[in-house]
Automatic annotation (TrEMBL):
The keyword Lipoprotein applies. This is Outer membrane lipoprotein-sorting protein. It comes from the Bacteria. SUPFAM superfamilies: Prokaryotic lipoproteins and lipoprotein localization factors (SSF89392). Keywords: Lipoprotein. Residues 245-291 are annotated as: Disordered. Residues 94-240 form the MucB/RseB N-terminal domain.
Length: 380
């Protein structure tokens, strides 16, 4: 299968509201040769982009390390606890995951930390999530149309597809230095936004020189030399995993919950410029009519209605009674700085790569932009 035609390898695996999915913006393609260590045949950015688009992946397993230093307050882990999604903690710190890919309908991810293991498995239309610490599992049957979970960058391929989704003249694409990732030679594509209002300085994508699959994805914030976000393989095997890797065998005593047949996880973390987002000012998200976008390219701002469970933290609305740990989430959001202006008032979450504004009239605005750009969009 084509890596870039699969809506990203393993993209469904981490349905968290990370907000670190980086937008594509456009490409004025450069033609610089790759670096000399290791020695690789020179290839232009256009050639590497074509390699990426035409690459095929039948199977893969490996270890992925994700590092995030987004300059955020310790809200991410608390928000994950409040929503019952421990995987939301991936937006901060360093995490190691094991991934397996056996085709478009067979994937698995395992997050192991000091508190236990959490697995997500897909085998055909069956999706299982398992928490070892609580010994609980949830089973979900995917809809027949295959439109299942939302995207967040679990692997370099996930993040790469989102970054290259809308190539146009807003981005300069060049070739960086060759390198070695997970013991394999790689070329490096460098995406640089032309719009200086974006908080993103560069996106660097390391492509396997033989398989043309992304092995590392880095995002550098404006004015920084080290990545604010990185997801990279430390070990990779391109053989197709055994079918047993994708079968869930409930451990003794596990408590299994069946999710409703028509339940779909929300579009967590869909960020400006990501696939499906509106491309122009005032554009609407086809999957979410209550979501619109302001602006284009790297400075796109997403505007949406604030979910009921989040309302108490920003707009004073009472959280739903059935929302898990809604009181904790409300308290976390209530600790965010208060801001106001001719656009209204609310609370602000800002980091190295993005800003999020939760207004008192029940809106959430987010983008890879400064808070000032959000305030401008909030006037509309």
């Amino acid at each position: 299968m084509s890596v870039m035609k699969n809506r990203a390898v393993l993209r469904w695996l981490v349905p968290v509201t990370a907000g670190v999915a980086v937008i594509g913006g456009g490409a004025a393609v450069g033609t610089f040769a790759a670096g000399a260590d290791p020695a690789l045949p020179p290839r232009s950015a256009a050639q590497l982009l074509e390699d990426l688009r035409t690459s095929r992946l039948d199977g893969l397993s490996g270890t992925v390390v994700q590092r995030a230093d987004l300059g955020l307050p310790p809200i991410a882990a608390l928000a994950g606890q409040a929503t019952g999604n421990q995987l939301a903690g991936l937006v901060s710190g360093t995490h190691t995951l094991r991934v397996w890919y056996g085709g478009e309908d067979r994937q698995r991810l395992a997050l192991v930390d000091t508190l236990g293991e959490q697995d997500v498995l897909r085998n055909g239309r069956d999706v299982w999530t398992w928490n070892s610490r609580e010994n609980t599992a949830v089973h979900r049957k995917l809809p027949a149309d295959g439109k299942d979970l939302a995207s967040a960058p679990a692997t370099p391929a996930d993040a790469t597809e989102q970054a290259l989704a809308a190539i146009d003249p807003t981005t300069a694409v060049t070739v960086g230095r060759s390198a070695t990732v997970a013991g394999r030679d790689v070329y490096e594509l460098v995406l640089t936004p032309r719009d200086k209002a974006s908080l993103v300085h560069q996106v660097r994508i390391a492509l396997d020189a033989k398989e043309h699959v992304p092995l590392r994805f880095e995002v550098l914030a404006d004015g920084a030399d080290e990545p604010a976000f990185e997801v990279a393989f430390t070990q990779v095997d391109f053989r197709t995993p055994d079918a047993d890797q994708f079968r869930f065998n409930p451990p003794p005593g596990v408590r299994v919950t069946e999710a409703p047949a028509d339940e779909r996880p929300g579009p967590a973390g869909r960020m400006p410029g990501a696939p499906g987002a509106g491309k122009a000012t005032g554009g609407a998200d086809a999957d979410r009519p209550d979501v619109r976008t302001v602006g284009t390219g790297w400075t796109t701002v997403v505007v949406a209605k604030l979910d009921e469970a989040l309302g108490a933290g920003a707009g004073g609305a009472k959280a739903g009674k059935d929302a898990p740990d809604a009181e904790m989430l409300s308290r976390v959001l209530g600790d965010l700085p208060k801001v106001s202006g001719d656009w209204g008032s609310g609370r602000l979450l800002s980091g190295k790569l993005f800003s999020v504004l939760l207004t008192d009239d029940g809106r959430v605005l987010a983008g890879l932009v400064t808070p000032e750009r959000l305030y401008q969009a909030a006037k509309g």
